[in-house]
Amino acid sequence: MIFLPGAIIGLALLCGVSIVPVLMSLSHGPTRIEAAKTRFLTAVAICFLVWVAGAWLLWWLAYPCSWLDVLASMAIIFTATVALGMLWSLVCWGFTTSLLSALCMLDGPASREVWFRAYGGGSSIADFLDDRLSILLALGLTKVDGSSVALSGKAGKCMALLVLNLRKFYGIPNE
After folding, report:
1. Does some domain include residue 44?
2. 125-138 and 112-119 are packed helices; what angle lies between their axes, rounded to 10 degrees?
3. Which of 33, 56, 124, 134 has the largest count of CB atoms under 10 Å?
4. pTM (two decimals)
5. % the chain with pLDDT above 90
6. Which structural domain range is residue 12 located in?
7. Helix or strand (DSSP H, E) at 98
8. Domain count, the chain
9. Which of 120, 158, 70 is nearest to 166 (CA)?
10. Long-range contacts of 164-168, Cβ-Cβ distance < 8 Å, separation of 24 or more
11. Is residue 42 part of a domain?
């Protein structure tokens, strides 16, 4: 039994994993694409087109591959796209899109307080922040001393730096 993937499946794995470095190259420098959605879709399109070109080249060279390999390859690229798309969405728009959805459910203009309560399921923004803080406290990433909140040692600092660098890595401003 051979456990190595065929050439077309290996190419799909490589193209799926390559979405991240292509996305990174489109996030910085002269190749930067400003709009986050367009940036992600362009990275996926580039990797998919590289896979199509590679598959065509394998076919042209008469490299043996079945239609099942082609379908499996497409499933691999689709899975990579969905998984990375979810991460990308969380990094770019997680909180923002949730707030937008809450505003949409209100059927018209609303004050900030009403909007935050709609988002928080009836809670105020202070209640929401306390809820998020309780998660950070439970994970040991923050600590509370009276009315002050601070990062909790190396774990909190490392996690905060990881998140800041992930956003920087993807060219998303830290606001």
Report:
1. yes
2. 40
3. 33
4. 0.62
5. 35
6. 1-93
7. helix 67-105
8. 1
9. 158
10. 166/91, 167/91
11. yes
